[in-house]
Amino acid sequence: MGDDPADKHDRASITEQAFAEFNRFEQVIPTHNLPLGPVYIQNFSLKKDEKFRSDINGLKTAPNFASAIISRPVANLLGLSGAPKQEDSPSFSSSQYVFKNVTAVIRPAESILLLGPSSSGKTTFMRTLGDVLGGSVIDGVEGSVRLGPTRWDPSVCSSELKRTVAFTDQSDLTLTPILTVEETVRFARSCTENLDPDVLEESLSAFFRLAGLDHVRHTVVGNADIRGVSGGQKRRVKMLEMAVGTDVTVFFLDEITNGLDAASALSICKVIRAAVQAQNMSAVTSLLQPSDDVYRTFHRLILLTPKGEVAYSGKTEDAESHFEVLGLKRPDGMNLPEFLLRCASTPADLYDGTEIGGLPLSSSSDLADAFITSPAGQALTRELEEKGEDRTETESAFASDGKTPQLKAFAQPTSRQIKLLLERGFTLVKRNPATLMRIISAIIFGVFIGTLFLHTPSDEAGTETRAGYVLTLIFLSFLNSCMAPLDDLYADRLTFYIHRRASFYRTVSYYISQVVCSWSVAMCEAFLLCVLSFFAVGMSGGWAFVYFWLMFTLLCMSGTAVSRCLAYSLPTNDMAQSLGPAALLLFVLSSCYSPTYLDLPSWLRWLAWLSPCAYCYEGIIVSETAFRSVGNYENGQSFAQEYLGIPRIAFGTPNATPALSTPGGVLAFDAYMLLCLTLIFDAIACTLLHRSQSWYGPTTQRYQVASGQSLAAPPWSGVS
Asked: Under a CB-based contact definition with an 8 Å cutoff, are residues 184 and 175 in contact?
């Protein structure tokens, strides 16, 4: 089937535009630092995982939180053992592979279409191939993937190759809705390349003009709640975000046209073709059911059967003639991509009875076997066997001992990463409606609590009332700082997974920026709560207010750290919202207000030494009572010890160390321990964030479920 001359001219004009745009700054922007050259894929297979077990009804189920916490047998009895494994067809259940014996050649400056029916393993194939090209070793992988004319193996590389591979899918959830199109792409570009500001601006303008986004570059991306760019424009933004790094040589795009109209889908595919030719990179794009026009924008086709086997691999213009040779005829009125999908799924419906080598085409497996011996299959075999003598630039950099050329794991140093992330983080803080709501809430609560405890007397009864005021403020501060950030943390966690997988920045760089950006909100929130209620209640002024504000700032920071621990350890926001109040209640009840420390059971007193609320409460009560009289008590600390149980270790007792024998020592100790607990929670949260990339982030293999419960399995279950 020949190309329409008008369509050829349209594609040529877009390609010329791409070259023109990139040539505007090609002298000052370096080309790919690590050109991979052709990618030769031969008999590439991935075995299915064996982490499904049968429940009491004989159904195969995936592990989940319930089965990990209360054991699988008990979970089975309660009907909580997990969602059943999806078995769409007998071919799915009988096959031991997600995809099997995939053979193909991916050349620079070519766009490859990956086509196949649903559940044929397209996404898993691209993710697995991307991991292998990035130097990762994947369990269950068979076959070979070689790079360049001399077929060097990426798995033996000692350097990081992940930056040479980019992956994007059809989801818009990983884009930050309150950032503009330009801010999103600029951040990605800055993370992957050191450019002069003028050169950076010129390169961004070229990308936006090529992608047709120049007129919306200052528009926010948006989401279902925030009006922003259109769906097709979001897909192009996401493509640019992942592809702007100059080290990217192979780009995988998973069903990026889903939900788009025909014109938008065609526009995106034309941009992909133009970009790969202009940048001398490769792109592998999976689509569900492209139109004829979209199909013609690709150079090569990889067609998979429902079992993940290759029905065809070669040039797109030769695909129809290949199936005609096999006896599969395209009915009148059927477009070419639909015909190819029908061939891969149900070849018997189109088979005219011709036998190739005595083999009738009655199933998709027969079609895969027939491809190997067909002229197209033989041509692919010859292409795989060709071996060039000249090494590529990358291969020439290899030493005789097999070491790879120098390619840093991250394009930017840690300090530069933190700077870029801080700029992005403060922009999000300023634009996030939740920030304003937290400030307004602090003002409302501060005024209300100050009015509720207005002019509390300083006698015995009044001091006890002031202790209640302190606990109320502790509860509200810790509640707000612990629960309010969860939604934003989960939303940005998705973005982090994508950025971290693309090696934009280190986990610790991201986490430091998160902590610093949260300081501004915590300090402002604590100041408003304190200043609007402290003096209204009649608390001791002067330096005591500074200490009061310091302790509540540390408490808010500690609550935010606990919030991050929840967000980075649990798979869903719903779980965190459910467990958050439990953690909050545990910390508040062990604050030593009621029951006091001595009234706690001896085997539970250790909780009071792990509670940020306890240190905040003790420090503020000591600062309020130790330096004034309380009613008939000339020494207010005696009253606090007798009626409030503060400090927890009484002055002058054998358990009181010299540092804790004075009010000043207790004040310093409580502030120090509150800071230490905050740092400990932050260290735990940072570790959880880094590990959660493999727990909840984009992974090579995912469970398929028919319906029912979430397959979110806890980290200790061994599920990746």
From this structure: yes
User: Is the separation of the CB atoms in 304 and 114 below 8 Å?
Assistant: yes
- Pairwise CA distance, residues 492 & 179, whole Å: 12
- Residue 535 and residue 581: Cα distance in Å, rounded? 30
- For residue 516, give the nearest of 424, 442, 440 by alpha carbon: 424
State the SS3 of 142-159. EEEEEECCCCECHHHCCC
What are the tokens at 669? 């100790």
Q: How many CB atoms are located within 10 Å of the residue 620 CB?
A: 27
Distance, in Å, from the CA atom of 612 to the CA atom of 414, rounded to the nearest integer, reads 31
Q: Would residue 239 be called left, alpha or beta, if left means φ above 0 and alpha means ψ between -120 and 50 degrees?
A: alpha
Maximum distance among all alpha carbons in the chain?
Answer: 109
In the structure encoding, which two tokens stand for residue 36, read together?
């991979």
Dist CA 703 CA 709 (whole Å): 12
Q: b/e per residue, 570-588, with b = 16+ CB within 10 A?
A: bbebebbeeebeebbeebb
The rounded distance, in Å, linking the Cα atoms of 397 and 150 is: 13
d(CA 363, CA 118): 17
What does DSSP assign to residue 97? E
- The owner of tokens 């735990």 is 684
Instruction: Count Cβ atoms below 10 Å from residue 317 Cβ, excluding itself.
Output: 16
Per-residue tokens: 674: 């509150």
Q: Which residues pair with 42 in a beta bridge?
A: 144
The 3-state DSSP class for residue 388 equals coil
Residue 105 parent element (H or E)? strand 97-106
Please list the rounded mean pLDDT of every run of 10 residues in the chain (720 residues): 48 51 46 62 82 48 58 67 49 69 91 91 89 80 79 58 79 85 93 79 83 90 89 86 78 86 86 83 91 94 92 93 88 91 85 57 78 90 70 43 58 93 96 92 94 92 94 94 93 91 92 94 93 92 90 96 94 89 90 90 91 95 89 85 87 74 91 96 95 75 38 46
Q: In terms of Cα–Cα distance, which of 251, 279, 277 is closest to 25? A: 279
Which phi and psi (to 5°) does residue 304 adopt? -105, 150
- Residue 18, token pair as written in the block: 């791409």
Question: For the stretch 67-81, what's the b/e string if a residue is b when 16 or more beta carbons lie within 10 angstroms of its beta carbon?
Answer: bbeeebeebbeeebb
Q: How far apart are CA 340 and CA 260, in angstroms?
A: 21
Which DSSP state fits 435? H
Q: Which two tokens stand for residue 384?
A: 């795989």
Yes or no: say if 326 and 320 are a contact pair by the CB < 8 Å rule.
Answer: no
Q: Which pairs with CB-CB distance under 8 Å and at least 24 residues apart come from 605-609?
A: 608/648
* CA–CA dist 561, 267 (Å, integer): 45
Own/partner contacts of 336-339, CB < 8 Å, gap of 24 or more, are 336/1, 336/292, 336/295, 337/115, 337/287, 337/289, 337/290, 337/291, 337/292, 337/294, 337/295, 338/289
Q: Which residues, in sequence order, are CB contacts of 235 under 8 Å at separation 6+?
A: 170, 172, 256, 257, 260, 264, 268
Is the Cα dihedral 430, 435, 440, 445 positive or negative? negative
| Token pair for 354 | 């011709």
DSSP three-state, residue 168: strand
Length of the chain: 720
What whole-number distance in Å separates Cα of residue 56 and Cα of residue 77? 8
Sheet strands side by side (includes 250-254)? 165-169, 250-254, 282-287, 111-115, 300-304, 310-315
Can you tell me whether residue 15 is helix, strand or coil? helix
How far is residue 449's CA from residue 475's CA, in Å, rounded to a whole number? 12
Q: Which two tokens stand for residue 305?
A: 């059967």
Q: Are 277 and 307 in contact (CB under 8 A)?
A: no
Look at residue 258 and give its three-state secondary structure. coil
Cα gap 159→162, rounded to integer Å:
9
**Residue 671 burial class via C-beta count within 10 angstroms: exposed 0-12, middle 13-18, buried 19 and up:** middle
Find the angle CA(387)-CA(393)-CA(398) to the nearest 5 degrees: 85
Q: DSSP string spanning 125-137?
A: HHHHHHHHHTT--
